[in-house]
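#struct-help
A.M.: can someone run this one for me? Single chain, 393 residues.
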Amino acid sequence: DTSLAEVNSFSPSMPISPSSMINQYKFEDEPELRDLFITVDDPESHITAIETFITYRVVTKTSRGEFDSSEYEVRRRYQDFLWLKSKLEEAHPTLIIPPLPEKFIMKGMVERFSDEFIETRRKALHKFLNRIADHPTLTFNEDFKIFLTAQAWELSSHKKQGPGLLSRMGQTVRAVASSVRGGVKNRPEMFTEMNNYMETFSQKINVLDKIAHRIYKEEREYFNEMKEYGPVHTLWSASEEDIADSLKGVASCIDKCCKATEKRMAGLSENLLPILHEYVLYSEILMGVLKRRDQIQGELDSKVDALANKKAEKDLFSEEIGKLEDKVECANNALKADWDRWKQNMQCDMRSAFTNVAENNLRYYEECLATWESFLASQTVDLHVEEDSEDRP
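D.P.: on it. Structure tokens below:
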């Protein structure tokens, strides 16, 4: 198996130090360079006769001239976020749209509609909107503006103005027709490299995601067992007068290690698992973006082939080919710029996540080691005191 670093054969060189990596991209988060701030918070449960759902408050503060006000507050449910994502994909088929959390969380992690599930989703929705806000093109999308500013009834009315069934069917038919034509003949080498990169990246990130979830599950099982292990020593001390203090000391050490383990689990669930799973979703999105680019290329290739076989309609085909060439060039340029931006963000996120995990692990083992060393030192002192008292006449 090759490492992710080896897969990154055609990426720009990145600094080795994690701190220098973070500093390099710090400018993206500088407040003075931003003119759009979005917060997702205050989840509320709604129970009707038909369904139960959660809405989130979306607060927007902006200094942009195209907004009528400097601050907006609306409530949105998950379906509204799905609508926004689909509209962005429809308007920008060759841009990398940030992923949304899945409708249902991974089985065995947390219960749906539990506080933990709602908080995990809230953070993901907050990140989704802010990634769009930071994107140089998506941030000016009209549907994004409507999502941030329209009241519930206005948004509902706007949703009904989407493409009709026939239009959607036409898009589906074109996509299917394009996909069955076979491989793209004239795909530029850069996009072949992107496809190869994403196939390997997808495989590796999925493996990492599964391993991380398995580690978290095993850690939780270890934590649950440790919680029962400490009280056993406390109960034991009640029936062993001679070693009662030692047994209580062991119980105290186990309790401290238990708390340290709980902190480490929180670090995994808050910092590592969401990042890995986000990039699992990103890998699926990027494969879809590359396919859509290939579909545009395939449409151009088919027109060129048709022109070669129909000389009588040369002028008409030449005009269509010119438009398609422009469309392919726009798609290529959009994807290339977004690809470089995504790669930099991905590498920064991965370095930060793994550095954070390493630091958390160091703190965990140092804390547990100090706890047990302190206990052993106290037992050694007690042992010497007992030996000295026995040696006296």
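A.M.: thanks! The chain has ten helices and three strands.
D.P.: also worth noting: The beta strands are 36-47, 52-62, 71-77.
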